[in-house]
Specification:
single chain, UTP--glucose-1-phosphate uridylyltransferase, 28% helix, Nucleotide-diphossugar_trans, alpha/beta, transferase, Spore Coat Polysaccharide Biosynthesis Protein SpsA, Chain A, 9 helices, GalU_uridylyltTrfase_bac/arc, binds 1-O-phosphono-alpha-D-glucopyranose
Length: 273
């Protein structure tokens, strides 16, 4: 079945960028002249996905406004012969069908995804992209995962080798078997392990293809001691129930714009002005 939908969880409080994220969502921070989330929507569109579901918290409606038409601004720019300034964004607004869902308490990624359950039909495969991870390459990164999902008939998670001293900032996979140079079948996952407990140096990057059954496994996942459901724990339950899950190495160049250092690196290397 063709993958036609992408979910972007964007309900977090943006703690690493406070205080600016008190009133400007992290996903709206400028990466040169575009907000981070626009790069993700563009990646979806480039992968031929036109249904995008965005999970917001109630204070983050400025994201919704950004993806709404603004004829007043369009008319002013047309008069000045400057329509090119919003042409890319307006093309996305024209072609993408946006849906919005709300997470009222910041209870983690699995809980955020749960809010978009009605967006996905039973038995459907769907894509997820975390807006912190901006990836540039010759092919939209999510398209590689969609192709692997189809070929291997399973769920797929993007991974990247990272230095072991940084591994505890990520979800980490344990390999079951190697399929080829870039693809592995996953035995299990662990969220943010201590360096000495990490099962590999392959860190989860924010691109996934999931099966709709994820939504029935999230509520079955045991809570952590801080009462959170961790997405890797849910995926472990699915693996134990026989769902094949694959890891695919990121092919493009990844920028972790979820940290001030990564955000700055992006600006230094991708100045579109
Ligand atoms: C999230 C995921 C983590 C993943 C990371 C990639 O963590 O929970 O598994 O490795 O994104 O960027 P966060 O960076 O939101 O803390």
């Amino acid at each position: 079945m063709k993958i036609t939908k992408l979910i972007i969880p964007a309900a977090g409080i943006g703690s690493r960028f406070l205080p600016i994220t008190k009133s400007i969502p992290k996903e709206m921070l400028p990466l040169s002249n575009k907000p981070a989330i626009e790069y993700i929507v563009q990646e979806a569109y480039d992968a031929d996905i036109v249904k995008v579901g965005i999970i917001l918290s109630p204070e983050k409606n400025v994201i919704k406004e950004y993806f709404e038409p603004n004829t007043h601004l369009d008319n002013i720019l047309a008069e000045k012969n400057q329509s090119y300034r919003v042409a890319g964004l307006n093309s996305l607004i024209e072609h993408i069908n946006f849906s919005y869902f709300y997470q009222y308490n910041p209870a983690g990624l699995a809980d955020a995804l749960m809010q978009a359950k009605t967006f996905i039909k039973d038995d459907e495969l769907f894509a997820v992209a975390l807006p912190d991870d901006i990836i540039f390459g010759t092919t939209p990164e999510i398209l590689y995962l969609m192709q692997i999902a189809e070929k291997m008939q399973g769920m797929v998670i993007a991974v990247q080798e990272v230095p072991l001293e940084n591994i505890s900032s990520y979800g980490v996979i344990q390999i079951d078997k190697k399929i080829d140079e870039n693809c592995y079948q996953i035995a299990s996952l662990v969220e943010k392990p201590k360096m000495e407990d990490a099962p590999s140096n392959l860190a989860i990057v924010g691109r996934y293809v999931f099966h709709a059954d994820l939504f029935s496994f999230i509520p079955k996942t045991p809570l952590t001691t801080s009462s959170e459901i961790l997405l890797p724990d849910t995926i472990n339950l699915m693996i134990k129930s026989g769902y094949p899950v694959f890891a695919y190495k990121v092919q493009g160049e990844r920028f972790d714009t979820g940290t001030p250092q990564g955000w700055l690196k992006f600006i230094m290397q991708n100045n579109n002005f």
